[in-house]
Structures are given as C-alpha cells and as structure tokens.
Amino acid sequence: MATESSAPLRVLSGIQPTGRFHWGNYFGAIRQYIELQSAGDAYYFIADLHALTTVREPARLRALVHDAAVDLVALGLDPDRATLFVQSDVPEVTELTWLLMTVTPMGLLERCHAYKDKKTRGVAADAGLFTYPVLMSADILAYDATVVPVGEDQVQHIEVCRDLAGTFNHLYGDVFILPRPRLVEAGARVPGTDGQKMSKSYDNTLDVFEDPAAQKKKIMRITTDSRPMDQPKDPLGDHLFDLFALVATDEEREAMADLYRRGGFGYGEVKKALVEAAARFFAGARARRAELERDPARIEAILAAGAARARAQAGAVLDRARRACGLARGASTAPPTAPRGHAAAQPGRTGPGATR
Ligand code: ADP
Ligand code: TRP
Q: pTM for the whole thing?
C-alpha cells in the first residue's frame, strides 16, 4: 500500500450545504477546489450528513444540496475533471465512521472547536456534533485523499483525521493514507462587512450569487473607522480594502493601496469600486448559474455519475479496513484490495440520497 509521500496526488474536500455560499467560502475554500482539479485526481462532495446536525427541514435540505451543486459547477468545478457527489450517496463512509469511532478517544473530540464552543456557550450538543470530526475523517480516508483544501477553521479536524488514521494503522497495519491540509493564505480569513471573520453565524456575509441590488446595499453599509479619509491610511488590515483586493485586478489593487496611503478621498468611493469589481469578478459564474438553473436534470446526472465513481473508491477502502480489523471472514486468503460485493456492485444513487 502506498505511503503518504509516494501516493499520487488525490485531492478531496467537502462543503456543507447550510446556506448560500459567501465570499469566505469561495475565497477560503471553493476557489482552491477549482484550482486543484487540474493538479490531480479530485473528489468534492456536498456534506449533507454534516448539515443534518443543523438543518432540520427535509425540503430545505434537499433544496440546499441541489443549490450547492449548481453553485459549485457555476463557479468552475468541472465534473469531467473532478468527481462531484453528495456525501450521503456513499453509505460506505458511514460504516467507515463506525470503524474509526472505535479508535477515537473521547478526550480528542472534547477538544474540538465546534463542540467545545457550543459547550462553552451553554448550548446543548448532540452526539452528531460531538462525533462530527470522525465522520469528516471517514470522508477523507475513504477516498485515499492526500491533500485536503480547507479554510483555517477546519485544520484541527484534519489533524484529528491523521490521528485516527495513525492509530488504526498502528493497530491493524497500513490501511489508510494520512492526508495533509492545504490552506490558501490570501483567502484564509476573509473579513465580513463588520470586519470580523465572514460567517453565516455573524450575519456579516457578502454572498456569491446575491441579488446585485441587495449586495450593493450591504457594501454601502460596510462599517469603516471614523478617521477621515483625507488622512493617509495603511491599507493593510483594513477590511474594506481586503474585500476589494479579493475581487480587483492586481493593477486596481495597487492603485487603491496608493490612494489609501496618499489619503484624500472618501470610503464611499472605495465602496463603489468594490461594488463594480465584485459584479465583474462574478459575472461569468452568474451567467453559468442562470443557465444551469434552467436544466435541473443536468445537475442530478452529474451527481449520480459522481456518486457511482465515489462509491467504487470508498468501497475499496472500506473493504481494506474491514479485512484489516477482522470483520471480513476469510480475510487472510482473499486479496486485500478486492472490493466486496456490495461495494463494487451497482454503484449509484442507491443510498439515502437516492430519493431526492
Ligand atoms: P460559516 O462560518 O459561514 O458557517 P462554513 O463553516 O460553512 O462557513 O465554511 C465552509 C468552508 O468555507 C470552510 O472550509 C471554511 O474554512 C471556509 N470559510 C468560511 N468562512 C471563511 C472565511 N471568513 N474566510 C476564509 N474561509 C472561510
Ligand atoms: N466540516 C467541513 C466544513 O464544515 C465540511 C467537511 C465535511 C469536509 N467533511 C469534509 C471538509 C472532509 C474537508 C474534508 O467546512
């Protein structure tokens, strides 16, 4: 079995369908997915099982999953190059989650942010939230991923994944490949309209496919400091400048940085420039999205084909793990990589997502 360093590049990431994608999601995660699809074999999925810990309305969950797929393809995820699928269409991953759960120390999960933050705030957590990093580990290990592009806040979960994979390998032999996280520094922490980290939870987002008039309003209301703009100002660390820098061309960004340093104009002008640059930056994606929305069957076909490919891969890894830990009878005589019947036969949308 390949070691981490000798394994071919296999990129994998998942994104929760818990609302419309905002700039933090795009610049912190989605943009990297799209760049990496040409660097190696890539698997991207919509994490509906993870979303179940927060979205409790079935029709809304279904719509969110579909919209997330449309958004990703519109933004440039190419289903001919990358495998795009829905997490729950691959039931092998939930079985693998159990195998990993048996080697997961409670203390490790107690230290994870998502759970710890809720507990600190006195909010009751369910076991789904508590064990969330184990499902995420199974998501990664099931596809022999070597590189996992994510935002800063997910790095801890990838460390958990490496930890669990290491323990399992130590107990049962070389079953899993240990993945590495991959961060993009420039987009690692996109600020929101209030200067805090952009997040759905802070209601400070600029959404990628937001109605342009609504987005303009939000941009014009971005909080700025009270220092008059006629005084020189350092663009570094100014959240309005940072947002502009994400969507502007290099030249525009340099020109704006000069203006900041020279002083002598108002924040209103910066905001207008931001509205224009944002509209231009996302125009192509917006047009592709409109086209895809007219053809919902096309997205469903993309997801079905993706699920079939993903199941074949996850089935092979699950088979390896089952044999290694003694679940598959006759394991010692069978070839280690032969997929078990259920994994290889009839891959496709037969999982819980099939009724969508
Ligand atoms: P939210 O905080 O709005 O709930 P999610 O937690 O669903 O966003 O984030 C999904 C992905 O987008 C993750 O990989 C995360 O790291 C990335 N991401 C979210 N917000 C930001 C941000 N402000 N800056 C950079 N990356 C972000
Ligand atoms: N937990 C991730 C998030 O909230 C989504 C996710 C689920 C994921 N499984 C994954 C990301 C596996 C990378 C790899 O953003």
A: 0.88
Ligand nearest to the CA of 138: 2
Distance between Cα 169 and ligand 1 center (Å) = 31
39 and 10 Cβ atoms separated by less than 8 Å: no
pLDDT at 19: 79
113 and 232 fall within a common domain: no
- Quote the strand ranges of the chain, DSSP E: 10-15, 41-46, 82-86, 147-149, 180-182
Structural tokens at position 164: 């669990």
Residues 322, 323, 324, 327, CA torsion sign: positive
The predicted-structure confidence for 257-276, as pLDDT tens digits, reads as follows 999 999 887 899 999 999 99
How many domains does the chain contain in total? Answer: 2
Residue minimizing CA distance to atom 9 of ligand 1: 25
Same-domain status, 10 and 159: yes
Q: What is the mean pLDDT of residues 36-52?
A: 94
| Rounded Cα distance, 91 and 85, in Å | 12
Question: What is d(CA 320, CA 339) in angstroms, rounded to the nearest whole number?
Answer: 8
If pLDDT is split at 50, 70 and 90, which confidence band does 187 have?
Answer: low
The answer to whether 243 touches 275, Cβ cutoff 8 Å, is no
Residue written as tokens 């259920």?
342
Residue 188 has pLDDT above 70, yes or no: no
**Residue 69 Cα to ligand 2 middle (Å):** 15
Give, using CA atoms, the residue closest to atom 26 of ligand 1.
28
Task: Look at 43-52, 79-88, 147-156, 337-346 and tell me which has the smallest mean pLDDT.
Answer: 337-346
Whether 160 is covered by a domain: the verdict is: yes
Residue closest via CA to ligand 2's atom 15 equals 15
- Residue 273: inside a domain, yes or no? yes
Q: What confidence score (pLDDT) does residue 333 get? A: 45
